[in-house]
């Protein structure tokens, strides 16, 4: 087992103390689970052969969303699906890539996600993000975590949790609002 995986398992303990030793999976919204899971089954990233390309695809999708007014939140869904495939490859979870969407959310991905959500609930307030976060803040956070993952370390220095868990949560901050045009108008500040 790699040092990174051991550290991830050690660093997740604080988030599970309040849930009888179980990651708080109830934090994940159905919108995020359904849309990203489906994209992970259908997307072009299923053909990517190495981890670096998956991270590059996620970065490229986020840069495209940040700078191209023609893009919509489905671009963020695609980037999140790349992260799920990265997890699947990194942790060598069983199952083929064309199975039902539940298998796309590997146990490690869901655990990292849930632990970051629990950390955020303690730091801010549970579900506070559902009130809305400006898209530019989420985009900056995603790109910052992707950069640190590639260049600095596997873990966030503030939470001591994996950057990948933070990336999934920050992506959900936008994906959650798909179909809620009134909120998107208030939050989408990419071109202001």
Provide key terms for this protein.
disordered N terminus
The shape, in one word, is globular
- Distance from N terminus to C terminus (CA atoms, Å) equals 46 Å
Contiguous low-pLDDT stretches (5 residues minimum) are 1-14, 94-102
Whole-number total of structural domains = 1
Rg over CA atoms? 16 Å
Most strands sheet: none
Reading the helices and strands in chain order gives HHHHHHHHH
Counting helices, strands and paired strands, the structural category is: mainly alpha
How many helix segments?
9
Mean pLDDT: 77
Percent range of helical residues = 55-70%
Beta-strand proportion: under 5%
| Number of DSSP-assigned strands | 0
In short:
With 192 residues, the chain is mainly alpha-helical.
């Amino acid at each position: 087992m790699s040092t990174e995986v051991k550290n991830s398992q050690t660093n997740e303990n604080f988030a599970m103390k309040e849930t009888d030793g179980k990651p708080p999976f109830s934090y994940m919204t159905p919108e995020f689970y359904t849309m990203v899971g489906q994209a992970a089954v259908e997307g072009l990233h299923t053909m990517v052969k190495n981890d670096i390309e998956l991270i590059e695809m996620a970065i490229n999708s986020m840069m495209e969303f940040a700078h191209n007014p023609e893009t919509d939140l489905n671009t963020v869904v695609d980037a999140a699906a790349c992260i799920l495939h990265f997890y699947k490859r990194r942790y060598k979870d069983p199952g083929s890539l064309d199975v039902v969407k539940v298998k796309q959310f590997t146990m490690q991905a869901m655990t990292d996600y849930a632990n970051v959500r629990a950390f955020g609930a303690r730091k801010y307030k549970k579900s506070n993000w559902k009130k809305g976060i400006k898209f530019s803040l989420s985009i900056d956070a995603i790109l910052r975590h992707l950069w640190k993952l590639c260049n600095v370390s596997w873990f966030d220095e503030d939470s001591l949790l994996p950057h990948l868990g933070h990336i999934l949560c920050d992506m959900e901050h936008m994906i959650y609002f798909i179909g809620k045009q009134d909120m998107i108008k208030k939050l989408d500040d990419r071109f202001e």
